[in-house]
Amino acid sequence: MVRKCLFPVAGYGTRFLPATKAMPKEMLPILNTPLVQYGVEEAYEAGMRNIAFVTGRGKRAIEDHFDKTYEIEDQISGTPKEKHLDDIRILIDECTFTYTRQIEMKGLGHAILIGENLIGNAPFGVILADDLCVGEPDAVMCQLTRIFSQHQCSVIAVEEVPPGEVHKYGVIAGEQIEQGLFLVNDMVEKPNPEEAPSNLAIIGRYILTHDIFDILHETPSGKGGEIQLTDALKTQASRGQVLAYQFKGRRFDCGSIEGFVEATNFFYQQSLRG
Questions:
Q1: How far is CA 248 from CA 116, 138, 140, 146, 245, in A?
Q2: 54: Cβ–Cβ under 8 A, 6 or more apart, which residues?
Q3: pLDDT single digits (tens) 175-189
Q4: Helix axis angle, 35-45 relative to 86-94, nearest 10°?
Q5: Hey, how many other C-beta atoms are within 10 angstroms of the C-beta on 72?
């Protein structure tokens, strides 16, 4: 089983200024739960108990969230409010949390490389908390780990996006080997629509084999002067070692205000149904 999950959470969240001036964007709540907690709960559901964060300046609130807060817990002990801490207590009690800092923002590939010492020589999950996913019938990371257990290679989650939006994503080309499962042979980071090999966009869920670190060490800066995870995965794909899975469920792009509001409305309607 995949036991470790890496969360790159060092980004500034400039699209949510001024709210993110002093608050990590990953701590913005959908109803009463921070975005990052939804991601950790998804990793937990997939059997990942070792949670690693690549953080940055101003992200201390994430560490504090996944820790006991004795003053609050003492104040609400024995009251109806105590039940609101049930889910986070499970995570705190059953998961191990480790942290390291990304000093410079040099891209997602660089952030994952910074996490190498926390992951070690093992396959691991990667969750981008900005992408809030609701899997059907189970979590997207559960779906990816099942694919990994069968094929023992890197697995990335993809979804179809309108052709006019492919410039926002990494996009794959590949051969469909099963329904919804593709052997990847090429990737393009944020292509122009006329250059995109497909409209299957990579979203923020990955299972990666540990050799991705060796590849990232050798990957030069790409688009935007950043070390792109897409470039490293492209190298893996050239060896026939990357699968793309068209996951079952729904994704909300909570890195945008529109997606954040959409997710809030969706979860509110779900809460009304009990």
A1: 30, 9, 7, 13, 9
A2: 6, 7, 8, 9, 10, 100, 101, 102, 111, 112, 114, 115, 118
A3: 999 999 999 999 888
A4: 60
A5: 12
What token pair was written down for 135? Answer: 């899997």
Q: Rg for the chain (alpha carbons), in Å?
A: 18
Tokens of 177: 């080997």
> Residue type for 268, please?
Y
Average pLDDT over residues 25-52: 97
Q: What is the pLDDT of residue 3?
A: 96
Residues in the chain: 274
Strand-pair partners of 134 = 250
pTM: 0.94
Q: Which residue, among 20, 21, 45, has the nearest Cα to 34 in the 3D structure? A: 20
Instruction: Give me the residue label for tokens 């559960």.
Output: 142
172 class by beta-carbon count within 10 Å (0-12 exposed, 13-18 middle, 19+ buried):
buried
Q: What is the largest CA-CA distance in the chain?
A: 61
pLDDT given at position 144: 98
Can you say whether the dihedral through the CA atoms of 253, 259, 261, 262 is positive or negative?
A: negative
Half-sphere exposure (Cβ direction) of 164: Cα atoms closer than 13 Å: 0
End-to-end C-alpha distance for the chain, whole angstroms: 32
Q: What is the predicted pLDDT for the residue at 253?
A: 95
